[in-house]
Amino acid sequence: MRHEGITIETIRVTLVVCCVLSFAAASEGAVAAENRAARPAARKVEKLACALGTHDSHARIAVELVNGRVNRFAYYSIWKPRTCSMEVERGDFYSRWEDTGSVTVVTLVEDTGGFLIGHEAGKRFHFIFREIDRMRYCGMEGKVSGSLTIARGEPRCVLDGVMDTGE
């Protein structure tokens, strides 16, 4: 069948070619977008650690920073024969993190306490322990309150009240 010099077969072939080219272009665009999405933003990971005290009575903390923000921390203290240990990480099931300017609020699950973390220009991180349940993290009665400060490049922490027994 002909209509002004164009056959139905020519129209079919043209439509098939157009569809194939459109599909190829869409697929190429989708692959490019997927590749852009697959490349995560550059992450700068740093680890800080400090300790204070003697062999029989000390506190220490290790902090992981991602792009200058606290992403995870592990606190450990010992008062012979007792020990206390807690590890908190963004995105875990045991805490909720909220950043507001230079302060991060970490709320622990089941009303077991929380932390305020102040960031001083990425050089110093001040952890305020807010009524942390000793039974859950330390196996003894009472609450952990006070503060601990870790500074970049400093091996010694600054403690205030965290190691108090609460008695």
Compact overview of the structure:
The protein is of the alpha+beta class. The chain has helices spanning 8-38, 134-138, and strands at residues 2-3, 6-7, 45-53, 57-66, 69-79, 82-89, 95-100, 103-108, 114-120, 124-133, 143-151, 158-160. 22% of the residues lie in helices and 50% in strands.
Notes on the structure:
This protein has 167 residues and is α+β, with helices and mostly antiparallel strands. The chain has two domains: 37 residues; 116 residues, no CATH class. Helices cover 22% and strands 50% of the residues. It contains two helices and twelve strands. A six-stranded antiparallel sheet has the order 7-8-9-10-11-12. The mean pLDDT is 83.
**Class from helix and strand fractions:** alpha+beta
Span between N and C termini? 100 Å
Low-confidence stretches: none
Task: Please tell me what the overall shape is.
Answer: elongated
What radius of gyration results from the CA coordinates? 29 Å
Total of helices: 2
β-strand percent reads over 45%
Task: Report mean pLDDT, rounded to a whole number.
Answer: 83
The tally of structural domains comes to 2
Strand order of the largest sheet: 7-8-9-10-11-12
Approximate helicity band:
10-25%
Largest sheet: 6 strands, antiparallel
Topology as a string of helices (H) and strands (E) = EEHEEEEEEEEHEE
Find the count of extended strands (DSSP E, 2+ residues).
12
